[in-house]
Amino acid sequence: MSKERVYVAACGICCSVCGLYVKEICLPCGSGLEKDREVVKRKMEEQMKNLGHVCPKLQCVVERKIGYCMSDCPEFPCKYYEKRLFPYSERFLQMYKARNK
Description:
The chain has helices at 19-22, 37-51, 56-64, 69-72, 79-84, 90-99. It is mostly helical. The longest helix has 15 residues, at 37-51.
């Protein structure tokens, strides 16, 4: 078994199984947790350089000092998911809202 760290982004995507990460095209996103502070700092710098903006979901968890949108934020799914639907489908978000009442 590999001792490589598994990275899960704040939005819930597992970076460690993403083809872009595996091919070393993309850095892992990490979470809003203290343990990921350096990873997130590098990711945000990469996003600004390559995209001209930072992922609003990643920015949000960092500002709120929470780990992951789905497990740690009482507002999930918020406007960032409803506008873009990434990485979840509209049906999934509807199901989540209905079951999380």
